[in-house]
Amino acid sequence: MTDIHFMREALAEARLAAEAGELPVGCVIARGDEIIARAHNACEALHDATAHAELLAIRMASAASGDWRLNRCTLYVTLEPCPMCAGAIVQARVGRLVYGAADPGQGCAGSLYRVCEDPAFPHFCPSEGGLLAEECSALLKDFFERARRQG
């Protein structure tokens, strides 16, 4: 399996979020060639500001693996993680982060800050951004255009 394959799976999750009226962000966590968790934003459905795709997927991956340490896993997400999610990625000891669209307003994996790669923290999670960025960005753009039209 390739990074592109897993990001396409994250995009499928983001599309489910969009269909549910959620901000279209999707996430999968893979260990080797196996997806052990998948989630999409559910803040509206759960009335929970912390129900971001990354946090939901981290919880699922920890349960599936029987360990909160996800150092043998790669987290794929369609939008650069916010400060909360980047912190959770570090706390969960995720082995690697790959994201699609940059988030210049809140992104903490390269845009505003590099939480996952800050040497001040006890865990270093290498991150790569821009994978299928145009496709990931298009979902977000469509979501916000529809929201503006609906007022």
Please describe what this structure looks like.
With 151 residues, this protein is an alpha/beta fold. Helix content is 40%, strand content 19%. It is built from five helices and five strands, in the order H-E-E-H-H-E-H-E-E-H. The chain has helices at 3-19, 43-46, 53-65, 83-91, 133-150, and strands at residues 26-31, 34-40, 74-79, 96-101, 127-129. Helix 1 runs parallel beside helix 5. It is globular.
Topology summary:
Layout: H1 3-19, E1 26-31, E2 34-40, H2 43-46, H3 53-65, E3 74-79, H4 83-91, E4 96-101, E5 127-129, H5 133-150
Parallel strand pairs: 3-4, 4-5
Antiparallel strand pairs: 1-2, 1-3
Quick overview:
With 151 residues, the protein is α/β, with parallel strands linked by helices. The protein has helices spanning 3-19, 43-46, 53-65, 83-91, 133-150, and strands spanning 26-31, 34-40, 74-79, 96-101, 127-129.
